[in-house]
Specification:
Two copies of one chain form a homodimer. The radius of gyration of chain A is 20 Å and the shape is globular. The two termini of chain A are 39 Å apart. In chain A, the strands form three sheets. Chain A has a seven-stranded mixed sheet, with helices on both faces. By secondary structure, chain A is α/β, with parallel strands linked by helices. In chain A, 49% of the residues lie in helices and 18% in strands. In chain A, helix 7 runs parallel beside helix 11. The longest helix of chain A is centred in the middle third of the chain and has 20 residues. Chain A contains 14 helices and twelve strands. In chain A, strand 1 and strand 2 form a beta hairpin. The first copy, chain A, folds into two domains: 183 residues, 3-Layer(aba) Sandwich (Rossmann fold), CATH 3.40.50.1970; 124 residues, Up-down Bundle (Dehydroquinate synthase-like, alpha domain).
């Protein structure tokens, strides 16, 4: 079975995101940064380009991208931000907007985001706003950014009142997912991105999850299985986004593991030494499966199967694996209730009826969740 | 003729802006602020509302709007900015975004702009960005805002590199143009807005321009002719915007008088004691007509006819009416060349073949414009 899928991949390393006149391609493959200049020229022409990146990524990958743009005859400016979530802020947004205008980019010129989710979110919001919308190209350099934030058009910065609260929907014109750059990714970050890969299997594609169980070492080692897994993940998200661009219905499935996960990230005050997003999602997905078992929706062996896989790739699967003290249950519940998924006192949760069979449940009783979480905290 | 039009108006004080799923109504009439609460509730429901306004407008009209929202049972917060163009800046953008989040508005709640173009542009950009897009309602309180910025969805703030360079296309859900509030507008501001009203006649509706020649005193005095003129203007812009939302082609006609006008505004360093936008447009429209005559497109009596009308309503019609010294011709030409309308060394200008017959000319020789302007400066 895995073999059939691999044969498909070799030919099909492009995923189309279908959104009418804003449709775009995600190209996936090793070494794509080397040919980025030509791909960009084919998509948006040879106008000026501003590359937005962070210091860490610039040290690793900027010269390859810059050389490629030079070879394609694309004049470009580089704007750098400090690495890390703190750059998703109003002052950096203003500084980048001004930087693009200072570089005299016109409407019709393009902004290229070279980096992970932070750079992509920030640069995308900048691209949406300068001259009321410029062409935007993503060169995501983390697994998480390649399989998650490069699809869907969500861009934004953080406010003092919460993450991603200020932004725009702004679709890229092209995404270049160079899977070789992931070789330089710290293993903890690769694993965290893999949690989202596994999520696509768990939420709607049981066959993909089975394939991951059989082929995950190839994904981690940078074999053709990696490109395959990323393409399948992008395709899964692209299909959901195409059906529901503005997150009215089915797109909520993408939140599998995220309601618990976000609460845990908030519980550790977003201290990434304790928990990064993908780890929160991994634990959150386990909690979603255990909670679904509690509600009689799935059997214990389904929970065990998911736990076995997430555990074998090295992802955390329970609250006990978060270093340090966790806050009391009511603090976690407050975070859950503030996660924009509450309507008339009832919680919206993504639950599941089996591997690949997640669904949106809009009437979850907070008291049941609290009792479940209390038990987990005390375990 | 004027009479027929007036009879139509009494029934039809709503203009529909057709933009697929983002279509909306502009309601036009005296006293609409009194019933704004109910209109808003009918359009977006009775969720929370944030009213964004400036100090000057708040003193005149906020209590009427606030009372109306109270009567409709709409809980609302008021966020004020200083009056004037300087509020269209990054710091106010950030402060307003934070203010809306602090007031705990959710996706699905609405932002109401009560004010002129500055408040509308700024509040619209805020509405586009908070939670990646909230419902937006405009209550424009100047003639210029009622006939121009309330149609088309352009929102934005200024950058140190130029005006309106940062923003979004974000359509309102509803526009309430209360024509009675214009009674409190300083006459100079009313006249400046009227330049844009006349523009709609000049660019594409000769019959409307003739009607204005016959009925302008009613427009100024607040008779039913005022509502009629505003409705016709909104309809004209709405038709153009519906055909060309992103300013690719026909929308450029709306720039009649604006290329010269913007250059003159820049020439006086945007000092509104010397020249406000509508006055620049009025002089710019005269220059566009005189330049069209120079090119043999129209007869001198057409120029005289336009001049007579703009002059009788009290608008400036020539460079000599701008107080103080104007810069040399090359400074004006630099401003014209920077006005985003240059392609491969040739200028795009809106010229005319007669009253109501403007057209886009994409290949105007800058040297011809320079010679024309030099003559006007030396006249």
């Amino acid at each position: 079975m895995g073999n059939t899928m691999l044969e498909e991949t070799a030919a099909a390393n492009a995923v189309q995101v279908m959104l009418d006149d804003r449709s775009y391609d995600i190209l996936i493959g090793r070494g794509l940064i080397e040919t980025a200049g030509e791909e960009i020229a084919e998509t948006v022409g040879r106008g000026r380009v501003a590359v937005i990146t962070d210091e860490t990524v610039a040290a690793l990958h900027l010269s390859a991208l810059s050389d490629s743009l030079d070879r394609a005859g694309i004049v470009h400016t580089v704007l750098r931000v400090p690495a890390g979530e703190k750059s998703k802020c109003f002052p950096e947004f203003e500084r980048l907007c001004d930087g693009i205008l200072e570089a005299k980019l016109e409407r019709g010129d393009a902004i290229v985001a070279l980096g992970g989710g932070v750079v992509g979110d920030l640069a995308g919001f900048v691209a949406s706003a300068v001259r009321r919308g410029m062409d935007f190209i993503q060169v995501p350099t983390t697994l998480l950014a390649q399989v998650d934030s490069s699809v869907g058009g969500k861009t934004g910065i953080n406010s003092r009142y919460g993450k991603n609260l200020i932004g725009a929907f702004h679709q890229p014109r092209l995404v270049l997912a160079d899977t070789a750059v992931l070789d330089s990714l710290p293993i903890r970050d690769f694993r965290a991105g893999y949690a989202e890969v596994a999520k696509y299997g768990l939420l709607g594609d049981g066959a993909f999850f089975s394939w991951l169980e059989a082929n995950w070492t190839g994904v981690f080692n940078g074999g053709p299985e990696r490109d395959e897994a990323i393409a399948r993940s992008c395709k899964a998200k692209a299909d959901i986004v195409a059906a529901d661009e503005r997150e009215a219905g089915r797109r909520a499935l993408l939140n599998l593991g995220h309601t618990f996960g976000h609460a845990l990230e908030a519980a550790v005050a977003y201290e990434t030494v304790r928990l990064v997003h993908g780890e929160g999602v991994s634990i959150g997905m386990m909690l979603a499966h255990e909670f679904s078992e509690r509600l009689g929706l799935i059997e214990p062996d389904t929970v065990e199967r998911v736990e076995k896989h997430l555990s074998e790739v090295g992802l955390p699967i329970g609250l006990a694996q978060i270093p340090g003290q966790l806050p009391p249950v009511d603090t976690l519940m407050d975070a859950i209730m503030q996660d924009k998924k509450v309507s008339r006192g009832e919680l919206t949760f993504i639950l599941t009826r089996g591997v690949g069979e997640a669904f949106v449940e809009k009437a979850v009783d907070p008291a049941t969740v609290r009792a479940f979480l209390l038990e987990k905290l005390e375990a």
